[in-house]
């Protein structure tokens, strides 16, 4: 089995986010970038398939040279090959078009992508890829088992879970539950050193025009001041909740 894991390079959730040029551009100065968490769950599941079923695991991302420290982590964890499509990820359609070309040329049986990235939260790339490639698609996937050419997946739906049987080739939009957080892997020193020596496959983008653009960014309104009261002053707490917070 040949697996492609699609990875997005996203800001760490602890990073302070700012915008420039009249709030029209994201300011990456001083921002730490990481593997998108939903993609990391997928990468960990792919490594399980490699170890238990002998799968080959490739990783692909769309981005410039600045993404290379992030994708080298995938090599350090155990991925066999990394592909960097040398283009800026302008919108979901553009990214999906680039990744779809990699899939077409690579002969992959299983494509694992995160259901959405934590920066723009578009949630569209795996679905667009499936449409472009005319492949089976399971979104919000929280479990995946494969035997021969058959796949059994469990996905989250409103109010419950749905179990699906399908066949390869298959694209999934994975999330937490595909593996647990405790299963996520931290590269060891040997893996990190070996990853530094491996060559990244950098490929040019295919011709594709974005179909959307970001016009302006806006931060959430700042939280209001917090008022503290003594733990034993229940009457004052009730008064504030009733008269000021107006929640009771």
List keywords for this structure.
single chain, 248 residues, alpha/beta, nine-stranded mixed sheet, two-stranded antiparallel sheet, 6 helices, 13 strands
Spell out the helices and strands N to C.
EEEEEHEHEHEHEEEEHEH
Task: Characterize the overall form.
Answer: globular
Provide the spatial order of strands within the biggest beta sheet. Answer: 11-10-9-12-8-1-6-7-13
**Helical/strand content category:** alpha/beta
- Tell how many strands the DSSP assignment holds: 13
* Share in β-strands: 25-35%
Measure the end-to-end span: 58 Å
Mean pLDDT: 92
Question: Mind describing the biggest β-sheet?
Answer: 9 strands, mixed
Q: Spans with pLDDT under 50 lasting ≥5 residues? A: none
Helix share, percent: 25-40%
- Number of helices in the DSSP assignment: 6
Cα Rg: 21 Å
Question: How does this structure look, described?
Answer:
The protein is an alpha/beta fold and 248 residues long. The strands form 3 sheets. Strands 11-10-9-12-8-1-6-7-13 form a 9-stranded mixed β-sheet, with helices on both faces. Strand 9 and strand 10 form a beta hairpin. Helix 2 packs across helix 5 and helix 3 packs across helix 4. The protein is globular, with a radius of gyration of 21 Å. The termini are far apart.
A few lines on this structure:
The protein is an alpha/beta fold and 248 residues long. The protein has 6 helices and 13 strands. It is globular.
